[in-house]
Amino acid sequence: MTKFYELSRQERLQSLVKAGYLAAASADFLQAKPALADEILTAITENDVGQFVLPYGVGANFLIDNQPYYVPMVTEEPSVIAAASNGAQRIAQGGGFQTVVVNHLILAQVILTGVTQFTDLRLRLQAVDRQIFQVAATAHPSMVKRGGGLRSWQVTAVGADQAKISLWLDPQAAFGANFANTVAEAVGNFVQTQVLQGAEQVLAAILSNSGAKMTVTIRAEVPWRALATTTNSGTTVAARIAQLNQFAQQDPERASTENKGILNGVFAAALATGNDLRAISAATTAWLIEHQQLVLSRWQNLSAKQVLQGELTLPLPIGQVGGAINSLPTATISHELLGHPTVEQLMCIIASVGLANNLAALRSLVTTGIQAGHMRLQAANLAILAGATPVEIEPLTILLNQEQQVDLARAQLILKQLRQQKR
């Protein structure tokens, strides 16, 4: 049976349509590769002069909460999708990814200055608790109508004369940045006019990108047999993966690289679904600092069950509607490909891609090394860099993959020889 990655692009699209993942119209759209209309470009960016195109692919073999998925991924790095599919395939042998917990609340802050009597301020705010909820609801009634809105608030002293009001908001299916800012400003105006006294002032009112309560935890168990190589038993590989992960938990230089490997997949899936990579990056940094943790994932070798267990907790400030999700046709197709998941399901899917990439990278590192597979997948890019024309890319790539070691000079020499043979 031909593997998914061995199919042509058209054959992959046809198989996704046949399996019910994509509508025929969506497959036609992807096949045609149409450019964004000028009206859309003008609406979603500033000073537009053109389009910057990135490859759009799918990660295969994902089984998440007992549901199979092809996960859309946008990345210029072929090894990211290959690794995600590889890791997902091994995890599927142990039952796939399982959601442990998921939260989706966005934080907004009203920042106060000139606070000299914090206890008195807190009592004054508590006295208007009901009004704060009413102001928040009035600021964005459509969100309340959809079931969202302000869930809780707290006031906290910060430094000698400052404080913050933390507003925890349910944005429903959206990421909720505009919603959070609207509510924060409304509550800030109310507090300024109705609560604050003397030198107390609202300094700013805005969302926070901490992602503290917009998090997902997923878990996977990989049977030892699924980790074996031709030269290493699954038992040995599992033990070495756990050891390398434990090292990362104590060494910031290794941890940064392991986290980058996780975010390779997370960013690719988030971008494909129209979500904000900057928000995810900021939230990840804040989460690691707050939890005094170096690496996002944790792998344990469970001898009694003969499995390697992985767990990933990740802040994921994302949405299932709004922003670029509704504006970009390919982002809309990504949600179709995933079966139009809820925002909580989408968080689990994106986190699963991160853990799959993490597993594949760790397994390569403790067995064959990362570079052999990486360079094999980079051969096509090297062919392009060497000057291959579109019709020369595939034959040159095949020849490059037959080489033990290759660089640009060698690629250019092989291309020259290939052209001479055709004369």
TrEMBL record:
Keywords, alphabetical: Oxidoreductase
Q: What domain of life does the native source organism fall in? A: Bacteria
**Matching Gene3D superfamilies:** 1.10.8.660, 3-hydroxy-3-methylglutaryl-coenzyme A Reductase, Chain A, domain 2
Q: Does the keyword Oxidoreductase apply?
A: yes
Keyword Oxidoreductase included in the entry's annotation: yes
Family, according to the entry, reads as follows: Belongs to the HMG-CoA reductase family.
What is the name of this protein? 3-hydroxy-3-methylglutaryl-CoA reductase
Its source organism is: Lapidilactobacillus gannanensis
